[in-house]
Amino acid sequence: WLMLDRVILALSDNLLYEGFWEYSSKFWKNKFGVKQTLFFYGEPRHVKFDETCGDVFRLPLVEEVSVNPNRDWACTWGLFYGASMFENEICMTCGIDQAPLSYTFFDSVKNYNYDTDYVVGLSEAYNNDKWFVSSHHIAKGKIFKEALQIDDKWEDEVKKVFAHRNNYGQMYGGNDYWGLDELYSSDKLSSY
Fold first, then answer.
1. Fewer Cβ in 10 A, N or C end of the chain?
2. Which regions of the chain does DSSP assign to beta strands (E)?
3. Gap between the Cα atoms of 24 and 31, Å rounded
4. pTM score above 0.85
5. Are 7 and 37 in contact (CB under 8 A)?
6. Residue whose C-alpha is closest to residue 22's, from 68, 45, 73, 56
7. In whole angstroms, what is the distance from residue 188 CA to residue 44 CA?
């Protein structure tokens, strides 16, 4: 038995990830019976994807926060924003390039009370209790919204997060703020 209602995936107009949605959506549907949900950030000018493979939502590009189209932290923030939209559904964030190979992970997180709990499934991935990866966060949408203090409007939300871009020091190298989604969410979750 799988406690998830939805897996939340994100994609932008980055050709490196073309084709991942189709594979991931079929995998989640056929292997786990979970509703696959994609948040596409920006306009698909180069990337082609099949919108019939699951629920697809569009998040408009917010140019002033998108520093590098090949490593766009704002696209990844769409995972958290997207999960917050499904108030009473248990959602899990996941990289579009990730796929669990068994039920082992889900067996380890199935006994939480998802009416109140927020689970960071890979919380020790970086061996840093102040920095969590953005994948494998599990909660009901209303808990995502409350814990991460997510605004209703996408543009307001992504600009609010970007305003904190200099609060966390060096991220993954470069000056494109890749990792801002992880550090900002980790900061909010530590307070929560």
1. N
2. 6-12, 35-41, 55-59, 90-93, 119-120, 137-140
3. 10
4. yes
5. yes
6. 56
7. 31
Structure token pair of residue 124: 């020790």
pLDDT in tens, 148-177: 999 999 999 999 999 999 998 777 877 899
Locate 182 and state its tokens. 């992880």
Residue 40, CA distances (Å) to 67, 99, 108, 160 in order: 17, 19, 30, 20
Torsion of CA 147, 92, 52, 16, to 10 degrees: 100
Residue 1 is predicted with a pLDDT of: 53
Please list, in sequence order, all residues whose beta carbon lies within 8 angstroms of the beta carbon of residue 25, skipping any fewer than 6 positions away.
Answer: 9, 36, 38, 53, 54
* Local confidence band at 87 (pLDDT 50, 70, 90 cut-offs): very high
Point out which residues pair with 68 in neighbouring strands: none
Number of other residues whose CB lies within 10 A of the CB of residue 12? 25
Residue whose tokens read 């991942």: 20
Tens digits of residue pLDDT in 62-72: 999 999 988 99
